[in-house]
């Protein structure tokens, strides 16, 4: 028969073991404001690199317009932000949230009804157009000049949807790449004749690669939003509150000007 203190010690050890198992089970932590987080003390944000100036790596850190805005959310929650680079389709489909990989998606994501159904979006924070990038010595001035040519696009993007939807109209063929830099660098390499993507990133690419230029911007009435799990409405509410406050107190404009060099457009 075991001594009483031995039994008590074993019971205590068992309780600690069960507690440790619970802490490693992936159960979400909750902030004082009722926001559920996959990791205690951390706002885990999923993105897809690189998409400068929205999110990209500089000096070993992930920085950018989206990152700065989500830092405001983390500050509001009293936690720190950690950014994780994953496949873009996992963010837009909501798979990243189902797998508890992140709390929010911040990847210059165009809001669409299908995406919103999978993982609800915040209020819009950026208006975007599609843009056509070519080499500076190219005779191409618009998609109308792309007949018989090759147009690169990024997988899982609205640009890909638009490009493929107009192949018959303009007579080009599309070539799909996994990310924006590879699709754009294909223009530099001459393996494609042009690339279609969001104007913010392609205008930035052209500034840094002066042998390329944006020759056309197409108003597709797109807006970016941050998305979250369907099970985390408190986080969505917090993001919306932060965006509203940042726009009213000038913080949003300061961040916008930092990354784009101009004031944010009036709403």
From TrEMBL:
Sorted UniProt keywords: Signal
Domain of life per record: Bacteria
One cellular component term from this protein's GO annotations in UniProt: cell envelope
Location relative to the cell: Cell envelope
Pfam families referenced in this protein's UniProt entry, alphabetically: SBP_bac_3 (PF00497)
Annotated signal peptide: 1-22
Domain Solute-binding protein family 3/N-terminal span(s) in chain numbering: 42-263
InterPro entries: SBP_3_CS, Solute-binding_3/MltF_N
Chief location bin: other
Family designation: Belongs to the bacterial solute-binding protein 3 family.
Protein name as it appears in the record: ABC transporter substrate-binding protein
Natural source organism: Propioniciclava flava
